[in-house]
Amino acid sequence: MKYKYYASLIFIAFIWGSTFPIIKETLSFVDPLSFLFFRFLVASVIVLPFIIRRINRNIAIYGSIVGVTLFFGYLTQTFGLEYTTPSMSGLITGLYVVLTPVLSVFFLKRKMVKIEILLASVAFLGVALMSLSTSSGELIGNILTLFCAISYALQIILTEKYLKDGDALQFTFFQLLMVALLSLAFHPQAILNFTKIEIPYVLFSVLFNAILGSALAIFIMSVAIKNTNSYISALILISEPLFAVLVSTIVFKYPINVQTIIGGSLIIISMIFAIRIENKK
User: Fold this and answer.
1) Predicted model pTM
2) Which residues contact 48 (CB under 8 A, 6 or more apart)?
3) Would you say the C-alpha torsion 128, 11, 208, 71 has a positive or negative sign?
4) Does residue 244 contact residue 91 with C-beta atoms inside 8 Å?
5) At what angle do helices 3-26 and 200-210 cross, to 10 degrees?
6) Which among 25, 149, 244, 263 is most buried, taking Cβ atoms within 10 Å?
7) pLDDT, tens digit, for every residue of 16-52?
């Protein structure tokens, strides 16, 4: 019965992996906070008609709280993409798969075995190798993206914590709305950049990311976490960085050096071992 949730998470991973190079190109036309504002405003408007008559106060509060972590995840990821490559961003963001069980110890009171600590350390080593192979500008992007991974791990964990018997669509809406509001709060001029939407590529990017990468993806992820758990959901999303590298290399012709391959491989290997360990429990 849970296979449909696993399959849906793989679909999300493909969508999110594809967004890395698309957003990278978009940022040459519009600043990060304006892009986030328009992306999540559109996503919120899409979801609003489906929940307007049945809003639950607790879901609104918890969804908004989780929306704060989602905002900082997207904020650091989007700014990071200005200074690093999409494939690098996808790989470092994928670190949240390993960070999720680590942070679950504090937020969900779960026990973490020594092998999970080892896998987390190996993944961090992979990030260090990739960062050492880049320029100072790209190093800034990698550090920002690392904070993104932490924020995403918290978002997944808090979704499991707060979304138990609640409505996943309402929960999704308030996350989306919070990201849009915080983007505008951090950058009030964003609303004046509406003319940027007239640029065909920006319009495509906003709609693609709002409909598939935000509204649909976050809703599906919320449902999947509600019916499985945060750790399993994060482990399945391991394929996101693989899709990011694949799309970035094949479609956008971004180069990959040896240290990036080694560092990325360490992250991916640590994730694969984490999956094998979870399956044996």
Assistant:
1) 0.82
2) 173
3) negative
4) yes
5) 160
6) 244
7) 888 877 887 898 899 989 999 999 999 999 999 999 8
